[in-house]
Amino acid sequence: MRIEVLGAVQAWHDDGRPISLGGPRHREVLGRLVAAQGRMVTTDALVDDLWDDPPSSAVGALRTFVAALRRAVEPDRPPRTPPRVLVTQGTGYLLRLPREAVDAHRFQDALTAARRSPDTAAGLGETLALWRGPAYADLPGSSWVEHERLRLEELRLQAVELRADALLASGGGAGLAAELAGHVAEHPWREPAWGLLARALHRDGRRAEALATLRRARTMLVEQLGLDPSPRMQRLETDILTGSPDLDPPGEHGPTGSTTTRTPLGPRTTVDVARTLALAGGDALVGSRRDRLTAIVAAERTGDVTLTARVIGAYDVPAIWSRADDPDQARAVVAAAERTLRRIGPDGPADLRARLLATVATESRSADTTGAALETAHTAARAAQALARDLKDPALLAFALNGVFLQSFTRPGLAARRDETGAELLTVACHHGLPAFAILGHLVRLQSASALGELGTAAEHAAAAEALAAAHESPLVPVLTAWFRARVTAARSTEPGGPTAATAAAAYRAADGDLATSGMPGLHRGLLPLALLGLRLLHGRPAPTDPGLDWGPYLPWAAPLVLLAQDRAAQARAALAAAPEPPGDHMQEALWCLTAHAAVALDRPDVAARAATALRGARAEHAGAAGGMLTLGPVERYLTEAEVCAGTAR
């Protein structure tokens, strides 16, 4: 059989006879399984996708739809023999069909192949002919349908532009100008489309019209978005003005020769692309943050408050660390979200308000935010969570729970509370097919178990996160779990027969090598020196004094111990007196323990008393282990010595 979803949902037997799929719900079940691309969709997820407010009979109704679809697609299947197409697996269902049997899958595979072999891209016209209208055109506008329509439509636009680029680069493209003129009229935000149209006009000998096209594009970009044309567009205009004999030759724009990559798009498309790239880490993550802010600025300049709210709230990329990678950018995003919240007002659309509030909570990282701004972030996290619950929107609730997690470092000793948040996040994400947030849930629970010294439980969550990461292309996860395994090696280096301290140090250094290129400086900077300091404290040794170590944000609390290791007691006392109260973040227990240890070594009972007061709620936790990446050993050790020094021991 074959299935078509690039238009109305239809199905056909191998002999060309149409398959009667039944009513709208039957077609929606089939369409949802097509969108899963061969992966199992749980019964719970299907129920939530089909009904905004599922009735008590929803599961039974779903089974009825599935049974009817099975009879339709396999009418000759003998009784009591297992189905071969619409298959039950675990707690859900999947479609078992070759990819070439589904038009959307054939289209995506052809586009992927054309990107890898640009000389075949001119042949995408046949693939584009598979489209008969909007994807899933006859299905209701539920969230999964809208997401798939947006995703597939973006791929269609990329295919149109990739084909046009290939035709022009090969010297073809007769009649392409009219096609591209319609494309630009429908999608004026797409700068690549304007460039392609100008090239096509120039190829047809219509030089004046090509220049006028580029000037219209510049006016639109500047006046509506506040963006200057890209250098590529400016070069194209210069080439047309000077009559360059070889406009846009193949290979000018990188290995694919395509003019459709790394160019400014409309704000909505830009932030969707940025959101996807963020999960890749490295340069893609760094670029995604920059592109996100560009999209927000462009959206604000349009004056469309709804567009601005959607662009700001669309970047629901899971965040695991309580220190921002780019604090200035984070503050700019928070400011834009707060401005947009004021413009929408308290009676504005609840879903937009919830996403803006969740953005304020996730971007106001506790290590970088203080005072009234931090209180605002705490309030925003709880408000977003409440709105998401009322709206019964699982994706929005997952985003809001991420904000709740990042605002849960108000004092030491809250690992158990964070574990509750992680457990809820994991339940929501798994039940509703949100793999990125399921990974986040496992990582939150890994961190919590690590903080509580439950290394077996933490290892289970590390393995689960890695399995999901492998299935959903999340390369940052193994970088984080490598640190967790180094943290385990460090803890076990104190046990009889365990690994040596040198082995643990090597594990930390190996993990640090991958983290250095991950695009997460807020996490990376200072982490290795802190881990090595913790390892030395586990073994009763002085702090490392290598001048090449970059302590980053942790220097004020490490400095007293480093100076003591250099026999500079007077400077160590001055550094201890100057050290501020640790920020409420993943490392607060570790930094308070360093303060306690230095206070004991320097005989400062007043400082020891302050540290003991802060650490009492974390007595059962392990210092530095709240991030799942390093350990200084049990908090109780540092707390006890601080209480003895302060004269408050029981």
UniProtKB/TrEMBL annotation:
Pfam families: BTAD, Trans_reg_C. Residues 1-97 bind DNA. Keywords: DNA-binding, Transcription, Transcription regulation, Two-component regulatory system. Residues 240-269 are annotated as: Disordered. InterPro entries: AfsR-DnrI-RedD_regulator (IPR051677), BTAD (IPR005158), OmpR/PhoB-type_DNA-bd (IPR001867), Sig_transdc_resp-reg_C-effctor (IPR016032), TPR-like_helical_dom_sf (IPR011990), WH-like_DNA-bd_sf (IPR036388). Residues 1-97 form the OmpR/PhoB-type domain. Residues 255-269 have a biased composition (Low complexity). Belongs to the AfsR/DnrI/RedD regulatory family. This is AfsR/SARP family transcriptional regulator. It comes from [Kitasatospora] papulosa.
